[in-house]
Every structure is written in C-alpha cells, then in structure tokens.
Specification:
With about 100 residues, the protein is mainly alpha-helical. The protein has helices at about 10-20, 25-35, 40-50, 60-95. It starts with 9 loop residues before the first helix and ends in a 6-residue tail after the last helix.
Length: about 100
C-alpha cells in the first residue's frame, strides 16, 4: 500500500532548516521528526539555501500563476480580435478608396 504524500507548511520547513543550519539538529533528526527520507530534508536545505525568501512557496504561487495565465489568455484573445477587426477595416478602406489611397 502506498503512503499518501505528506505536506508541511512553509513555516515548519523554514524553522527546521534554520535548526539544521544553526547546528541545533542534524538532517537525520529532522527527517525522523517529519517522518520523511533524509534526501527530502537535503532537498529542502538546498532550496532554502539557494533563496530563503522564496523557498517553499506552496499552493499560493500556483494560484497566482494560474490567474496570470488566465489573464494572458484573455488578453491574447482580445488582441487577436482587435487585429482581425483592423484587418477587415483595411480591406474595406482599400476597396472603397481604390489602390491610389486618395481619401
């Protein structure tokens, strides 16, 4: 039987990484405390050391990215419609005024 994936909030992970970095606890102790493999704690440590401010973003970043994606799709749709309208307008003007461009 497969175990369900464990989730830990950002604050707990940061607190644990600070304990490892400060030498209060080893990565093995943290792994036992969280009931995860030591490789998971090692990955957490690497992530935390590479950029502490943005480490362990959780679901908030994904929601923001989804909203941003939705906004960009809508913007693309709007711009595509505007382009199509302008193309039609150019064709109509060209037909009406002729190839000389006299308006």
């Amino acid at each position: 039987m497969l175990k369900s994936r464990k989730r830990f909030d950002r604050e707990r992970k940061i607190q644990a990484m600070k304990q490892v970095i400060d030498g209060e606890k080893t990565m093995g102790q943290i792994a036992k405390e969280f009931d995860v493999l030591p490789s998971v704690v090692s990955r957490w440590k690497s992530e935390y050391l590479s950029n502490p401010d943005s480490a362990f973003p959780g679901g908030v970043v994904k929601k923001i990215e989804q909203l941003e994606y939705s906004m960009l799709v809508k913007q693309l749709h709007d711009v595509t419609q505007e382009r199509d309208i302008l193309r039609k307008a150019i064709v109509l003007l060209y037909k009406r005024e002729g190839p000389t461009g006299d308006i």
